Structures are given as C-alpha cells and as structure tokens.
C-alpha cells in the first residue's frame, strides 16, 4: 500500500542562501526592503500600544502610528519596485 509521491521537483541548493532566495523569488534588495518594512512595522505597532489616555494626544499619536504602519505596508509591497530605479539606473 505504500506508494511514493513526489510533492516537488528536486532543486540543487549547493549555492547556499543565494539558491534559496532565488527559489522564493527574493533578491538581496528585496530582502533588505522586507527587513526594513518589518522594522518600521514593529515601530508602528509599538507606537500604537503606547497611546495615552488624553484624547487629543492619543488621536495625534494614533494617526502618526497608522501612517507609519501604512508606510511599512507600502514598502513591503512595492519596495523592490521603488528602489529598483535607484539601484539599477537606466543608461
């Protein structure tokens, strides 16, 4: 009853991390922008958790935290496209 089935084709990973990131579709620039977006996202969540009881101050700090979270989201989704014009200039 034991029937072998292959879930995925074998991939040569002898090149180390470069081969791994190539298989998931991330370049080194993409990895850096995802890391920066993650750090900015953590900072935004920390800002949201430190809101005060004063409504005026909480509204101001909360809106800044939501804006920071939006920047992190845009950077995570489109960061490689945004920075590709900086890292690979067209001649």
From TrEMBL:
Membrane-traversing stretches: 31-49, 61-79
Domain of life: Bacteria
Keywords attached to this entry: Membrane, Transmembrane, Transmembrane helix
Name of protein: Uncharacterized protein
């Amino acid at each position: 009853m034991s029937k072998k089935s292959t879930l995925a084709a074998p991939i040569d990973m002898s090149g180390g991390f470069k081969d791994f990131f190539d298989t998931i579709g991330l370049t080194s620039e993409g990895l850096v922008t995802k890391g920066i977006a993650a750090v900015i996202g953590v900072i935004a969540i920390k800002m949201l958790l430190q809101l005060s009881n004063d409504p005026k101050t909480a509204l101001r700090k909360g809106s800044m935290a939501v804006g920071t979270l939006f920047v992190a989201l845009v950077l995570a989704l489109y960061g490689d496209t945004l920075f590709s014009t900086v890292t690979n200039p067209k001649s």
